[in-house]
Amino acid sequence: MADAISLRVITPDSILIDAPADSVRFPGLDGSIGVLPRHAHMVAALDAGPLSWDGPDGKGEMFVAGGFAEVRANTLRVVTQSGELVSDIDVKRAEASAERARDRLRVSGTAAKAGELDSLRAQAALRRALQRLRVAQSR
Questions:
Q1: Which of these, 103, 132, 98, 130, lies nearest to 115 by C-alpha position?
Q2: Helix, strand, or coil (residue 27)
Q3: I need a labelling partner for 31 at 20 to 30 A (CA). Which of 50, 70, 109, 135 fits?
């Protein structure tokens, strides 16, 4: 365990992951970020996408919907609004969410400036749904 970093993935509802990891990779706003044991202190903004880790119990992957990550004292804390383990992703629900977002984008694309905020929200929802599907397909 001395050569592992403690990985904690926290949502408003629960702690999804609390496990040792040999390496962790997560989506930062500026690209993918990798963390190893004894990493320097760091805070980074998260983008929606896959969070993966290698640990003593094997590999794991999940979807995170943005938030932030903090490395401190050999612990990586990932705080996100929502997250799902690969095994918990409902592919049909994610596909339906992507289709709803595409429909909203079609409607807001035909409207004038009034739909700009709706369009931005629909783009974000579509991006999250597509990332969720990408993670689910990596099983």
A1: 103
A2: strand
A3: 109
Provide the β-strand partners of residue 65. Answer: 48
Longest dimension (CA), the chain: 58
CATH architecture of 89-137: Up-down Bundle (1.20)
What is the 3-state composition of the chain as percent helix, strand, coil, each rounded to the nearest 5?
35, 45, 20
CA–CA separation, 9 and 129 (whole Å): 20
Q: What is the pTM of this model?
A: 0.77
Mean of the pLDDT values across residues 50-70?
93
Instruction: State the residue for tokens 């579509």.
Output: 126
User: Could you report the per-residue pLDDT of 66-87, keeping only the tens digit for each?
Assistant: 999 999 999 999 999 999 888 8
Q: Which residues contact 106 (CB under 8 A, 6 or more apart)?
A: none
- Would you say residue 59 has pLDDT above 90? yes
pLDDT in tens, 3-37: 899 999 999 999 999 999 999 999 999 999 999 99
Q: Please state the domain extents for the chain.
A: 5-86, 89-137
